[in-house]
Amino acid sequence: MNDLVPLLAIFMVFSTPVLCLGILMFSLHKRKQLQLEIINRLIESGQPVPEALFTGAASTAGGDPLYRRSLYLLWVGGAAFVALFFASGLDVAALALIPIAMGAVNYKLWQDARAEQQRLGD
């Protein structure tokens, strides 16, 4: 029985990312099926199909994906920095600067894209 614990731990460590990836892929597949079902219903009823359903453009309710990704990375990086700082010090907490930097770059890209849209719109 005691020999089974390390094997189970190793199996769980390496199978968890695969399981998470499988759940993500299944979720994306179901979302795509729902999107195609909506498009088919619109076509059958004779209504025009919005181009945003084909291009994957950001909806007004959902916001811009780049903006959401930047905020997500900033918050996750900040939370990881605080947790790692209190758990093991500044040396390890510096690793959390990676998602913080990625979030900051995404936020800057979002700002530049928004400024460009406003410049072209005016």
The succession of helices and strands, N to C, reads HHHHH
**Helix share, percent:** over 70%
Termini distance? Answer: 72 Å
Please report the number of helical segments. 5
- Largest pleated sheet: none
Helix-strand makeup class: mainly alpha
Radius of gyration: 22 Å
Overall shape: it is flat
Overall mean pLDDT stands at 86
Strand content: under 5%
Q: Let me know the number of strands.
A: 0
Unreliably modeled segments = none
Quick structural overview:
The chain is built from five helices and no strands.
What do these coordinates show?
The protein is an all-alpha fold. The protein is built from five helices and no strands.
List the helices and strands and how they pair.
Blueprint lengths: L3 H42 L6 H4 L9 H24 L1 H4 L3 H25 L1
Helix pairs in contact: 3-5
Notable traits:
single chain, 122 residues, mainly alpha, 81% helix
